[in-house]
């Protein structure tokens, strides 16, 4: 198996384990793309201020996606799994 296939399957495996990683990446690229397109009409705003706002918005989205992903993972590990284990014990 080539290195490319190993990397692709690793990404897909990680995406299935934590579905909010691709959401965070997509949101990051969407925000950066939108802000770069909006750069034409920034008016009197300095370039550095515009880039700082773009970075803060993109990082905020990624941090939000990571937080939701951690909360989802905790819910799955501490609420759903114990319920399933309890049902399995009751069925025996």
TrEMBL record:
Its main location: mitochondrion. Gene3D superfamilies: 6.10.140.1320. GO terms for cellular component: mitochondrial membrane. It is found in: Mitochondrion membrane. One of its GO terms (biological process) is mitochondrial respirasome assembly. Keywords: Membrane, Mitochondrion, Transmembrane, Transmembrane helix. Residues 1-84 form the HIG1 domain. The chain crosses the membrane at residues 20-36, 56-75. InterPro entries: Hypoxia_induced_domain, RCF1. It comes from the Eukaryota. This is HIG1 domain family member 1A, mitochondrial. The gene is higd1a.
């Amino acid at each position: 198996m080539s290195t490319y296939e190993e990397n692709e399957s690793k990404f897909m495996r990680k995406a299935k384990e934590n579905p909010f990683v691709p959401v965070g990446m997509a949101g990051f690229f969407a925000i950066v793309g939108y802000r770069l397109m909006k750069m034409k009409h920034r008016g009197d705003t300095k370039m550095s201020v515009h880039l700082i706002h773009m970075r803060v918005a993109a990082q905020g989205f990624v941090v939000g996606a990571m937080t939701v992903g951690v909360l989802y993972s905790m819910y799955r590990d501490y609420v759903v799994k114990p319920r399933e284990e309890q049902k399995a014990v009751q069925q025996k």
